Amino acid sequence: MGAIDLALVAVAAVLVACIVAGLWRGVRGPTAEDRLTAFVLLGTSGAALFIVLASALDVPALRDVAITVVALATVAVVVYTRRQPR
User: Fold this and answer.
1) DSSP per residue over 25-68, as a string?
2) What is the pLDDT at residue 28?
3) Secondary element (H or E) of residue 86
4) Residue 85 DSSP symbol
5) What's the pLDDT score for residue 77?
6) Exposed, middle or buried by CB within 10 Å (0-12, 13-18, 19+), for 77?
């Protein structure tokens, strides 16, 4: 295992920790804003994890999955913020 592979594994581990923290906040969040913040964290961390996995496993299709995850998270945030009364 080379230095790059070791670095990719370390980055993937940090991203998985971020995803776990986001899931915890999404479940325990006392307010809707906490849950929205957790959802944004899950979207960005999930996309970053897919990009790291695409590089580590040499599977370019995972980059497309990352773009899809970011697009879905963005749409969810826009829908949530538009439905809030002003």
Assistant:
1) HHHH-SSHHHHHHHHHHHHHHHHHHHHHHHHHHT-THHHHHHHH
2) 87
3) none
4) -
5) 84
6) middle
The whole-angstrom distance between residue 2's C-alpha and the CA centroid of its chain comes to 26
Cβ neighbors of 57 (< 8 A, separation 6 or more) are none
> In 3-state terms, what secondary structure has residue 1?
coil
| Cβ-Cβ contacts under 8 Å for 41 (sequence gap 6 or more) | 18, 21, 22, 25
Phi, psi at residue 66, to the nearest 5°?
Answer: -65, -45
Q: Are the C-beta atoms of residues 35 and 29 closer than 8 Å to each other?
A: yes
User: What mean pLDDT do residues 21-34 have?
Assistant: 87
pLDDT for 86 equals 61
What is the longest distance spanned by two Cα atoms in the chain?
Answer: 54
Mean pLDDT computed over every residue of the chain: 89
